[in-house]
Design goal:
This protein has about 130 residues and is mainly alpha-helical. It has five helices and no strands. The protein is about 70% helix and about 0% strand.
Length: about 130
């Protein structure tokens, strides 16, 4: 009995004999996993590029809509005299000859102060 127990203890401490191919395969698998996860063509990089692509496509769509709005506004400014009059009245605070323009300024509004200061120097009537 003592002999079998000694053999079992000896067998437990002994490492299995592995061929060199085992180590090559293990190192190869580790390298493949590392390249796919961390390299320029890795999965993490792919996810980042996919996210960036979605953001750029969204930005392109917004810019296309903005371009359409600007083209529509250009067309209206070239053809629609009522729109031109409204645009000039709102943006440049202009009026027709003989009209009085009143500014309503809310307390503490910095934007209104800038508009009022800018428009006082450029006050001119709209010609018909």
């Amino acid at each position: 009995m003592s002999r079998t127990v000694a053999n079992k203890k000896k067998a437990r401490g002994k490492k299995p004999n592995r061929s060199p191919w085992y180590y090559f395969i293990f190192v190869g698998v580790v390298l493949v996993i590392f390249v796919f996860l961390r390299g320029n063509y890795g999965f993490v990089h792919y996810l980042q590029l996919t996210k960036q692509k979605k953001q750029l496509v969204h930005e392109i769509e917004q810019l296309r809509q903005q371009r359409e709005q600007l083209n529509t506004e250009i067309q209206r400014l070239m053809e629609d005299y009522q729109y031109i009059e409204k645009f000039v009245r709102e943006k440049y605070k202009m009026g027709k000859p003989g009209e009085k323009i009143f500014f309503m300024i809310s307390p503490g509004a910095e934007e209104n102060k800038d508009v009022l200061n800018d428009s006082e120097d450029e006050f001119s009537p709209i010609s018909e």
